[in-house]
Protein 1
Amino acid sequence: MNKKYFLNLLTMMMVAMLSVGFTACGDDDDDVTGVAGVESLYGSWQQTRGVAYEDGDFHHEKKVSADDAEYLRFDKDGNCTVMSGDYGVFDQNGTFSFSFNEESKSLRAGYQTFVVDGLSNNTLKLKYMYSSDEYILATYKKVSDNVWEKMPQ
């Protein structure tokens, strides 16, 4: 085998392996169940899914498009800014002070309180309880602050 052929073959194999690696990592955090610290919360978030739990079962599960998504931005000064979408858990837009309790897995923003069902560096799951056994669960992915800055204010 000549050297040029071997290098071309090696390059193609590396490209193929890298593309498999990127594909495999796509939605790994959708199944996040643990709750990381408040540092993971800071930044901009876009809703990707919404589902309601009613009458002992899940209903109305929906993937949420970028156009219909609720967007959140948490900053280190203790503010949460909300741009509500069609399927989110917040009932109004605005900037609210927030507090996060990692131990009790609770997030309070403005007058609303949520259960943090999962939090990692890439995924946030907020549960809004509207009765003792019924809730809405919204899943968010962390997005670049550029996404936030390009949104109409």
Note: The longest strand covers residues 43-54.
Protein 2
Amino acid sequence: MIRRSVRKAFHTVRWIPPSAPVSQPAIFVPNHHGWHDGYLMYVALTKLGYPFLDWVTEFDAFPLFGKVGGMRFPRDDAAGRAATIRQSIRALQAGKKNLLLFAESELHYPPELLPFGDALGLIAKKVPGVAVIPVAIRYEMAFHERPEAFLSFGPPVEAGPRVPERTRLAVRALLDETALRVRHRPETFLTLVEGTKDVNERWDMRNIPGRRKP
């Protein structure tokens, strides 16, 4: 369902994968500017072969997300959120899973980044050696019938104090770098998903075998 939705929604998904294998366990921390953010991260992380957990605020509405690492993280249940955080920490400490964390908590319009929550700092403290990986997700709507999506994975954030603040700065810088690449160096992106071609690409009459060229 997730892969089908991505192929249907986008013309292409392109990415800059990690430049080196990511030390596990890891926390992948993207911005949250689009409805498809979780779907795109699922496609990217499964492509990389990194099993992960993901906190889902709407889990009760669609519990099938539990089949792909989704965990209940309800806005109106502090005890439920705390239980999910504890469970995630144990899984990372055991080396069984990584974590996809939307540290801004809320989906919102770009380009701003909301403050990153304390949960990121807590998990980084409780799981010694965990790698914190910033990720930028950018959507472009210009040259095609459907939008294009661009993902960039950055280098790990160094361990130490103020992990949420420093990770937010890293995501901000990565978003800016991704925007420049899209405009000036699009060839540096690899194709992650071939989506749905434009109507003129699908129905170009010039490509019909035997048709005379005008």
Note: Strands lie at 12-16, 26-30, 52-56, 70-72, 98-100, 131-140, 148-153, 190-194.
Protein 3
Amino acid sequence: MKKKNLFLYANIIIPLFIGLVIYLFCYRNTYINSIFENYLGLSLPYLYFDNIIYHFVTCWACDILWAYSLTFSLYFCFKPFTKPLRVTSVLSILFAVSIEVLQAVQIINGTFDIWDIILEISAISLAVIIIKRSFLK
């Protein structure tokens, strides 16, 4: 496997795995918890800490991680095309903002949060910088 593809896979899979772990152990009554507890029969411990780091992780880390992973995923898909980083950036930001807007108008479940948009765009920007430095030398 090419080293650059391994780098892409790691930047897609690792953030999603970390987000999964956060959802499994820091949330209750989510779709993913239902799958693990009801269908797989696993009883998962619930972790709670009363501090600012825990609050940040439970409020924004998963959104940051999926936005970062999405950017790498889209880059992987559009890599063969002309200007893949530009397309990746625009689509990632549009998707992130669209999800928040759909939450705001209550078309999908979730809570609209302007900080989600700010932090997701920051994560997308970080991913773009990393991709640019890694692949476009």
Note: DSSP finds five helices and no strands in the chain.
Protein 4
Amino acid sequence: MFGEDLTGCESGWEWSMVDRQEDALGDWIRSIATTSEPIEFNVVVPSFDDPPFALDQPIAPKPPTPKVAPRPGPSTSWLAAAAVVAILVGVVAVGALARSSAREAELAAASTPAARATAFWRAVEAADVPAILAEVDPDVDSPAMTIFGPASTMGQQFDWYKSIGFEWQLDRCLDVSPTQANCTVSASNTWSDALGQEPISATFAVQLNDDGVVNVDDVSNAFFGRWFPEVGDQFKAWVEINHPDDAEVMFGRNTAAHPEILKLYEVNTTRFVEAQAVDSDG
């Protein structure tokens, strides 16, 4: 009999214990239902020997949380930086526009006939042949742009000026038309200085095209009309009287400023100055 009940013994025992406990619980409930005595429950309630506050004392209010000023967030800083950048960009743009406008005005002023004629005469004043040629239209038939002197090229003209101590001095140039400026200039040289003659002033019309100066004209013959009778003719007469052989070469038909003529002008200029000094001393 044990052998047959041994299999599953534990599970069978467990179930028989549960059945007994249920039967006991049922008997206990039925006995309570038939009695009038009060039932006591042994419920353990925790007690507080030291309560955190006295029950008969008012509870102190909780102190208010201090307010902290909000710190500027990333969005505020970004907006401020963006505003500064926008202002700087505006300032830079205005400055660039002002510089551009000033540059345009400068270029416009530099391209007027008066400005271009001034550049030409400044180069003449400095005896700077390359700078003079840079202001002259390269297609002009006479590259010399002969203003005054026995020359066929600009280089020869200034070689002659050097031999007689001749210099131009610019006063100013004024616009006359889109293709012309009138320039007031004066000139003097070793001869006029020896004669005590003040520099002779006159107005020259400078004609221009898109490529440069194309013509320089003595307005009303004002310069030549004074230079020859007051200075040039006196030098020529002195050479013809005192050095007739030189005069024949210097003032003959072939008056191009070649080396021989330039040398004769230089020598006789020195002689003329010395003669004027002697005459003034006597």
Note: The CA atoms of residues 8 and 14 lie 10 Å apart.
